[in-house]
TrEMBL record, chain A:
GO terms for biological process: phosphocreatine biosynthetic process. This is Protein-arginine kinase. Gene3D superfamilies: Glutamine synthetase/guanido kinase, catalytic domain (3.30.590.10). It holds the Pfam family ATP-gua_Ptrans. Its EC number is 2.7.14.1. The gene is mcsB. PROSITE patterns: PHOSPHAGEN_KINASE, PHOSPHAGEN_KINASE_C.
Automatic annotation (TrEMBL), chain B:
Residues 133-160 form a coiled coil. The keyword Coiled coil applies. GO terms for biological process: stress response to cadmium ion; stress response to copper ion. Residues 137-172 form the UVR domain. PROSITE patterns: UVR. The keyword Coiled coil applies. This is UVR domain-containing protein. InterPro entries: UVR_dom, UVR_dom_sf, YacH. Pfam families: UVR. Keywords: Coiled coil. It comes from Aquibacillus halophilus. GO terms for molecular function: cadmium ion binding; cobalt ion binding; copper ion binding; zinc ion binding. Signal peptide: none annotated.
């Protein structure tokens, strides 16, 4: 398979689109947790209960279409190879928990990979929708429509006072987790992000660094999401998140502007060094990859680098993860072998743009 | 910002916790987040184990006869639908089924308050299909109460009207099918 072909399969179609504020907001996600009302939750359900749910999804939703989400495909975890599952995890279409622990799990995934409904994860149903850039309201509207569509055939576990009943008390109520993935290189570089985090936390929002193989935040990418699901409506939660993200976008733009004004040469040097590393290295770890990709992406946004597409950060962050590298190699690789393949894949990818 | 647990790695997970009504900030690294149970399944940024253990641990230390009775009774709380006991729930931190919420209801509000910043009542989406029944059920209950009042006060003519209204509402409510698949 050619690299171009591989990339086309590896990158979800929705990721190739450019959404609003995509210079800073990489993607928006809404997740809704739902359960059948008469069936025990997956954590203690009997296999026959879970199998029944899998069959139900297969029968009712496989090859169905809903709105823009065409040709939904239902896959059972038991029908997938470990590496195939890992790729779905790295595409964020399923959770690590579903891949590793849910033998009777499944996933209903739309052709454009914008919708993924995990089945028999911690809850019976976890609806996930992804949007490029900053599109919280649109994502919520679509999530509600999809939720209504599923509910036509499913009696949800719902209580007037407690809302949607979930396996974990942290999800009860709306069952919603709204999150936004942001690239904040300038706020990180100027150490402003650390000062902003406590204020964001005070609003009931969680800030998380994104990880690769190690335990450090990678690539200046942060996920902001809501913590509370009970006692506040989805719209209110999304509104809060939206105003915080707007503020962060504004601050990040300001910080970039100041960086360019005050230390243009150092910044340019840093960005082009990183560009050089990506273009010429022969062995590269995921941590260095993330740092360099973040620099290059910043360089593109500021206008220093012109011949590389903006989506390169999202794309290569996904492609250079262990699961994809091994799928590309079609075999299991040691960490060292991965570092070599990672370097070569990045070099090849950048050559495609020349 | 360094991790408040190990003081080695940089903190990458940031959130607040409400303990006894006051918010505390938390900054931990991914490693410690997993180790200390701040995250479950690599997604939820919250320490439920921490919350639950914190909640239950202090109870036995402040014993008097009355509370010790309460604790004994709490051990006998059990969901008849799925068989999960309250004790198991506090260990696992997950409910076994929808009915657990009823079975353990007397114990749950303090937990919800801690996890959801003091909130205990849902304010958000209601399922489109089965939700219409929720609205009608509310109406139905109100009418039934009214009917009882009217019968008590022997206002039978009005009572008959209300009874007819109840029948109308009941007709409108779709039978709540089994949620089993
Ligand atoms: Zn730590
Ligand atoms: Zn139960």
């Amino acid at each position: 398979m050619s690299l171009q072909q591989f990339i086309n399969e590896a990158i979800s179609p929705w990721m190739k689109e450019e959404g609003p504020d995509s210079d800073i907001v990489m993607s928006t996600r809404i997740r809704l947790a739902r359960n059948f009302d008469q069936t025990p939750f997956p954590i203690i359900a009997k296999s026959q209960n879970l199998e029944k749910i899998l069959d139900f999804f297969q029968q009712e939703y496989h090859h169905q279409s809903f709105n823009n989400y065409h040709d939904l495909e239902f896959v059972k975890m038991s029908d997938l190879q470990p590496i195939e599952k890992r790729v779905l995890v790295e595409k964020h279409l399923i959770s690590p928990h579903l891949a590793e622990n849910a033998e009777l799990g499944g996933a209903l995934i739309s052709k454009n990979e914008q919708v993924s409904v995990m089945v028999n994860e911690e809850d019976h149903i976890r609806v996930q929708l992804y949007f490029p850039g900053f599109q919280l309201e649109e994502a919520l509207d679509q999530a509600f429509e999809l939720d209504d569509w599923l509910e036509e055939k499913i009696n949800y576990a719902f209580d007037e006072k407690k809302g949607y009943l979930t396996s974990c008390p942290t999800n009860v109520g709306t069952g919603m987790r709204a999150s936004v993935m942001m690239h904040l290189p300038a706020l990180t570089l100027t150490q402003k992000v650390n000062r902003m985090i406590p204020a964001i936390n005070q609003l009931g929002l969680v800030v998380r660094g994104i990880y690769g193989e190690g335990s450090e935040a990678l690539g200046n990418i942060f996920q902001i999401s809501n913590q509370i699901t009970l006692g506040r409506s989805e719209r209110d939660i999304v509104e809060d998140l939206q105003s915080v993200v707007n503020k962060l976008v504004e601050q990040e733009r300001k910080a970039r502007h100041i960086l360019v004004e005050q230390s243009e040469l150092q910044l340019e040097d840093r960005i082009f060094r990183s560009c050089g590393v990506l273009q010429y290295s022969r062995i590269i770890e995921s941590k260095e990859t993330a740092k360099c990709l973040s620099d290059v992406r910043l360089g593109i946004d500021i206008g220093y680098i012109e011949n590389i597409p903006k989506t390169i950060l999202n794309e290569l962050m996904v492609l250079t993860q262990p699961g994809f590298l091994q799928q590309y190699a079609k075999k299991t690789l040691s960490p060292h072998e991965r570092d070599i393949l990672r370097a070569s894949l990045i070099r090849e990818r950048l050559k495609l743009e020349k | 910002m360094e991790c408040q647990e190990c003081h080695e790695r940089p903190a990458t997970l940031h959130f607040t916790k409400v303990i006894n009504g006051s918010k505390t900030e938390n900054h931990v690294c991914e490693h410690c987040a997993k180790e200390k149970g701040y995250v479950s399944y690599g997604e939820e940024a919250y320490s439920l184990h921490d919350l639950l253990s914190g909640l239950f641990n202090f109870e036995p230390s402040s014993l008097n006869e009355q509370t010790s009775k309460d604790i004994t009774s709490q051990h006998h709380l059990k969901c008849l639908k799925c068989g999960m006991t309250y004790q198991e729930f506090t260990k696992v931190g997950k409910f076994g089924c929808a009915s657990c919420y009823d079975a353990f209801s007397e114990r749950l509000n303090p937990i919800f308050r801690r996890v959801h910043s003091g909130n205990i009542v849902h304010d958000g989406k209601i399922p489109k299909r089965i939700g219409s029944n929720i609205h009608q059920k509310k109406q139905l209950n109100e009418h039934k109460e009214k009917l009882q009042e009217l019968i008590q006060s022997e206002e039978f003519e009005q009572a008959a009207q209300v009874r007819d209204q109840i029948k109308e509402i009941e007709k409108g409510i779709k039978p709540n099918g089994e949620g089993e698949v």
